[in-house]
Amino acid sequence: MSSSYAFIQNEFVPLTEAKLGVMTNFVHYGTGVFEGIRGNWNAEEKQNYIFALEAHYQRLLDGCRVLKIDLPYSLEELCQITVELVDKCGFEEDIYIRPVAYKSSEALGVRLHNLENNFLVFAFPWGPYLPEKVKCCVSSWRFPTEIPRAKLTGLYITNALAKTEAVDHGYDEAIMLTPDGYVAEGSGENIFLYKNGELATPATYDGVLVGITRNLVIKLAADELGIKTTERHVNRIELYNAEECFLTGTAANITPVAEIDGRKIGNGEIGEITAKLQVIYNDITQGKNPKYADLCTPAHNRIMANN
Ligand SMILES: Cc1ncc(COP(=O)(O)O)c(C=O)c1O
């Protein structure tokens, strides 16, 4: 039987038993670094493939440096704990894995120093995060570029404000702008537009989260479709005039954008290039493309699967 487990305070427990004290510093001040990792179920192989495991933990450790979180686990140990967790959960469906490195002292006070650090991770079944194609609006909430772009829990309050504003107004997702008015990203995704045979996406100097999906899509577009991506400032008006637009992220995968601020993108249907990238990406994440097998970590029967 499958059920959710968590690894917390150095042991595996059923998810329902994984608790934090109410005075935990992280709960009050957002002093945590998190990741979102997907496990993709491959029905033919009866295997759950954890996607880009090492890259996610490398980004988590980079964020830990920002928040002065010194974890008692190495990159390899974090990966190992996660594989064991997913194996233990035994889900035969797509899952989401949420690791958090956090200031664990039960001590109030706004600071990063003189606090203990800890790590937890849990997994649960999670299907599509967004609809098949989405309606977006440009958010009135500006995206903070001064704060380092790691996945810091406290930073996500702007994203939450933007997302709920969008949903309250009948849209599926928000697109945030930088303080100087350039397109930044969705509340949980990077954004791409396609026009005149090329892709463009906001550059890292605009302070966007450097998405693992974003980087892979840039590579796949070049290597598999011969399409160049330019990382640069993107203007809001360019979005309206794009032939295609899509969002990328671990939760959202590649999600076509059908409409922005009440204007159809292209003909409002899933674009040709977007659809091609979706097929290539989905095959890779489900462990069906041997060329990219090193990005997929099998969670079950590891010794057999590796031979
Ligand atoms: C704000 C934001 N931008 C972009 C992304 C996409 O990053 P990735 O592709 O690494 O999941 C995410 C999700 O992690 C996010 O939260």
How does this model look, in words?
This protein is of the alpha+beta class. It has 2 domains: 5-125, Aminotransferase class 4, branched-chain amino acid transferase, N-terminal domain (D-amino Acid Aminotransferase, Chain A, domain 1, 2-Layer Sandwich), CATH 3.30.470.10; 134-270, D-amino Acid Aminotransferase, subunit A, domain 2 (D-amino Acid Aminotransferase, Chain A, domain 2), CATH 3.20.10. The protein is built from 8 helices and 17 strands. The strands form 2 sheets. Strands 8, 9, 10, 11, 12, 13, 14, 15 and 16 form a 9-stranded mixed sheet that branches. Strands 1, 2, 3, 4, 5, 6, 7 and 17 form an 8-stranded antiparallel sheet that branches. The radius of gyration is 20 Å and the shape is globular. The mean pLDDT is 95. Pyridoxal-5'-phosphate (PLP) is lined by residues 36, 159, 185, 188-190, 209, 211-214, 248-250.
Explain briefly what this protein structure is.
By secondary structure, the protein is α+β, with helices and mostly antiparallel strands.
Distance between the termini: 26 Å
**Computed structural class:** alpha+beta
The biggest beta sheet reads: 9 strands, mixed
**Strand percent estimate:** 25-35%
CATH class of the largest domain, please? Alpha Beta
Radius of gyration: 20 Å
Integer tally of domains: 2
CATH topology term of the largest domain: D-amino Acid Aminotransferase, Chain A, domain 2
Global geometry = globular
Order of helices and strands: EEHEEEHHEEEHEEEEHEHEEEHEH
Number of helices: 8
Ligand list: pyridoxal-5'-phosphate
Mean pLDDT: 95
CATH architecture of the largest domain: Alpha-Beta Barrel
User: Which parts are unreliable, with pLDDT below 50 for 5 consecutive residues or more?
Assistant: none
